[in-house]
Amino acid sequence: MENKEQSNGEMKESKAMKKKLNWSGSLIVASLTGAFGSSFLYGYNLSVVNAPAVYIKKFYNETWERRYGFSVDESTLTLLWSITVSIFAIGGLVGAIIVTPIVKFFGRKCTLLLNNVFAVTAALLMSLSLLAGSFEMLILGRVIMGVDAGISLSALPMYLSEISPKEIRGSLGQVTAIFICIGVFTGQVLGLPEIFGQESRWPYLFGAIVVPSLIQVLILPFLPESPRYLLLEKHNTSKAEKAFQTFLGKDDVSHEVEEVLAESRVQRNTKLVSILQLLRTRAVRWQVVTVVVTMGCYQLCGLNAIWYYTNNIFSEAGISHETIPYVTLSTGAVETVAAVFSGLVIERLGRRPLLIGGFGLMIVFFAVLTVSLTLQNTVHWLPYLSIFCILAIIASFCIGPGGIPFVLTGEFFQQSQRPAAFMIAGTVNWLSNFAVGLLFPFIQSGLQTYCFLVFAAICFAGATYLFFVLPETKNKTFNEISQAFAKRNKVSLEMQEMNHYAGERKSSAEQESNFTSSVDNGETKKGIV
Questions:
Q1: C-alpha pair distances (Å), 357 with each of 21, 306, 464
Q2: Are 158 and 418 in contact (CB under 8 A)?
Q3: Which is nearest to 401 in space by CA: 434, 433, 357, 437?
Q4: Does the structural domain 24-223 have CATH classification 1.10.287.1080?
């Protein structure tokens, strides 16, 4: 009995030690640096335009009057401002579309580095627009910044999923969402009147974009490229082994190399798959549908509507107009804490509970918020309940729906399919973002406070789909995840191998032979894995 307890204790200690070893210094630095110059800037640019909105509109009006000799009418000013805000999503869509050939040619890390050209260019255009007296520079800067965001929200999750061990893949993947939240919060803080939220200082809010980009450019070049990219796409075994050693913090990486090669034997080729080819591949049909659903719900679940109502709800609660910017910081703080919490527990609880549970909690709080907003003029304490619901909805979103869709996209697909999958995910993400910005004012105008019931219905539909379709992917390899979907896709793992791009089997077999011979383990098997 004592020996059994001792054995169990040693096993637990071994697992804890293994998990600790997974977090090497290089892995942490790569994830933090990559996210700081990428998803952080996406979050920052979501919130940074809110604080100086009044001053930017005044700048538009003064520029118009100086050019044409009369003030711009209200409808034109509203249109210019709407374009300034929403055109960020158009740039994001462009970035999501062009990311696939870029990550294929330059690699994941180099794509993140080159993407800083867009960020710095956008920062210069937007920060100098007031000095140049050109609001077109600000709008163009927003477009270019959107392109940067579209590329980074695909390249960063791809990079993180490929450099992390499967035991911590979810936690590392959540770094994307955590830094989006930190970026939103930073934009709120820097927009305070005491910092850059003044008429003479608002250009500095956009100039600050340069700082994360420069930090990434200074640090990321000293870290390795994705080892999976090096091994499967560049066929460079020695560099891949060194990358694995750096990220895993150990010398013997033969197991990890063989695991990646096992994937290559199943997929039979490493040629980049197009979107059309991916959509036609039966073996990943439900994976693609799941990515579309999760990404669609990520944008359509109503969080943008919450930001729209926040100031009004705070005013109804008796908070003065001057104090609201400081109280709004609580939303950014809650968002960040919830995202960090999700990153800490995702490898214990799994993806399913956090994602489905997050949508479930949002449904509940949307329903309560609808009731409290409808009746808030009849009961004096209901505005405070509305504030609580807003914070609860934000927290519910960030513990699951706010980050896990990016993790799942990296986990569902094999190396040759991943860029196309992220292009699909990014396209759905940005089109949904644009649709919300375009349609929400009409929904809000027609339904008033009942508009939240529309978002509750979307959350319910998403949660129901995920409950019946989504398998748990925690600690699973690509092959294991494919097997979990195989029955629903009506294919077996063996059938996937036999039918996967049959026309390229000869070149694939040659690649496999090259891969296998490059690893000095004496194995030359070419059977089905």
A1: 30, 19, 11
A2: yes
A3: 357
A4: no
Domain boundaries, the chain: 24-223, 231-269, 273-505
Q: What is the mean pLDDT of each run of 10 residues along the chain (529 residues)?
A: 49 47 82 95 91 91 92 88 88 94 93 97 96 95 96 94 86 91 93 90 96 97 93 88 90 84 63 86 93 94 77 75 84 92 92 95 94 85 88 93 91 88 93 83 81 93 96 87 87 54 41 45 35
| Single-letter code of the amino acid located at 113 | L
Terminal CA-CA length for the chain: 39
Whether pTM > 0.90 for this model: the answer is: no
Rounded Cα gap, residues 501 and 17, in angstroms: 42
E strand residue ranges, 219-347: none
Measured distance CA(406)–CA(64) in Å, rounded: 42
Q: Compute CA 435 distance to the chain's CA centroid, rounded to the nearest angstrom.
A: 18
Crossing angle of the two packed helices 25-36 and 175-190, in degrees rounded to 10 = 50
223: left (phi over 0), alpha (psi -120 to 50) or beta: beta
* Residue showing tokens 């204790």: 9
Q: What is the CATH number of domain 273-505?
A: 1.20.1250.20
**Cβ proximity of 473 and 408 under 8 Å:** yes
Task: With beta carbons less than 8 A apart as the criterion, state whether 333 and 400 touch.
Answer: no
Helices 418-447 and 135-163: crossing angle in degrees, nearest 10, is 130
Sequence letter at residue 147: V
Yes or no: say if 87 and 146 are a contact pair by the CB < 8 Å rule: yes
Rg of the Cα trace of the chain? 24
Judged on CB neighbours under 10 Å (0-12, 13-18, 19+), 435 is middle
pLDDT given for residue 493 in this prediction: 54
| Residues in Cβ contact with 514 at an 8 Å cutoff, skipping those fewer than 6 apart | 235
Residue written as tokens 């560099």? Answer: 239
Same fold, 24-223 and 273-505: yes
Residue whose C-alpha is closest to residue 413's, from 219, 205, 267: 267
CA–CA distance, 55 with 61 (Å, rounded to integer): 10
At residue 265, the pLDDT reads: 66
DSSP per-residue letters across 23-59: S-HHHHHHHHHHHHTTHHHHHHHHHTTTTTHHHHHHH
Rounded CA-CA distance 18/41 in Å is 33
2 token code pair = 């004592």
Task: Return the axis-axis angle of helices 135-163 and 74-106, rounded to nearest 10°.
Answer: 30
Integer angstrom CA distances of residue 157 from 103, 226, 418, 451, 527: 12, 12, 10, 32, 32
Going by C-alpha positions, the residue among 162, 325, 264 that lies closest to residue 504 is 264
510 burial (CB, 10 Å; 0-12 / 13-18 / 19+) is exposed
3-state secondary structure of 415: coil
What separation in angstroms does the CA of 470 have from each of 286, 483, 488?
A: 9, 13, 11
Rounded Cα distance, 16 and 14, in Å: 5
